[in-house]
Structures are given as structure tokens and as C-alpha cells.
Specification:
alpha+beta, globular
Length: about 140
């Protein structure tokens, strides 16, 4: 699945592939599903629990929490690791959602990758993000 959103070209890993077994790789976030109009309406329970208003509010809350932390830490420009307590808080906030399968290292990698992209877009006054969920890659042009 590919998505295009509105720099220099660089490729960043999104998340490490999860090992085979009971852990499944989460797909699009609730906000992304809403914006792209691809909510899972065929399954009312999934639609309500994973794509509904509560999941969107939780995602926005996590985003605000991480942004506040990032602002106090130079938007992770010279940071190698995120505080474990923040990662535990994120995991607790999302514990009943499909992203609960993610480990702290997965959250850390996704956050750090997002902020590398954000800093590049900011430094270049914009650009284009190409997201390949199958390959778990984010390319910035």
C-alpha cells in the first residue's frame, strides 16, 4: 500500500518487521484512515474500536505528548534514545488498540524516523513524503 503526502531524497525505515506469529503488524493509524477515507466499515467492532473517535483522540493525545517532549529535546536532533517512561506511557495509552503489539523499541524507531523526516521537511521548507507500508519505508524528496 502506498500513500503520498504533502528536501532532499533520503530513505528511512518506519518499523522493523514484526516476527511471524501471533503479533501482527499494525496498518494505518486512525487519523490516516479517516483522512484517506479508508475506515474499516465492514467490521463494526473494528470500525468503532480501532478507527473511531476514541482511537483518533488517543492518537492525537500521543502526538501532542511526543511533540511536547520533542520540543524540550531539540526535536530529537541529537538524541539517540527516548526516555523509557515516555515510551511506557505511550504503550499504556494505546494498550487496547491494535498497536499494542508494538514494543518500546518499535515506538522509539517510529518516533525517531518521523522526527528525522519532520526536521528534513522543515529545513527544506517542505517536500514530498512517499510512504511504502509494504516495505516499511519513508522516502523524502
Amino acid at each position: 500500500m502506498r500513500g503520498r503526502y504533502a528536501c532532499r531524497t533520503s530513505t528511512l525505515p518506519l518499523l522493523r518487521r514484526l516476527p511471524p506469529g501471533p503479533r501482527r503488524r499494525p496498518g494505518l493509524s486512525p487519523v490516516t484512515r479517516f483522512v484517506l477515507g479508508c475506515k474499516r466499515k465492514s467490521d463494526p467492532k473494528t470500525d468503532e474500536a480501532e478507527d473511531g473517535g476514541r482511537a483518533i483522540a488517543i492518537e492525537e493525545g500521543i502526538s501532542a505528548l511526543v511533540f511536547s517532549y520533542a520540543a524540550r529535546h531539540g526535536y530529537f536532533a541529537n538524541v539517540r534514545h527516548i526516555d523509557h517512561e515516555l515510551l511506557k506511557t505511550i504503550a499504556a495509552m494505546a494498550s487496547h488498540l491494535e498497536v499494542s503489539v508494538l514494543r518500546a523499541t518499535d515506538w522509539e524507531q517510529a518516533i525517531m524516523t518521523g522526527y528525522v523526516a519532520w526536521r528534513q521537511l522543515r529545513a527544506n521548507s517542505g517536500g514530498t513524503l512517499h510512504i511504502d507500508l509494504d516495505q516499511q519505508m519513508l522516502t523524502i524528496e
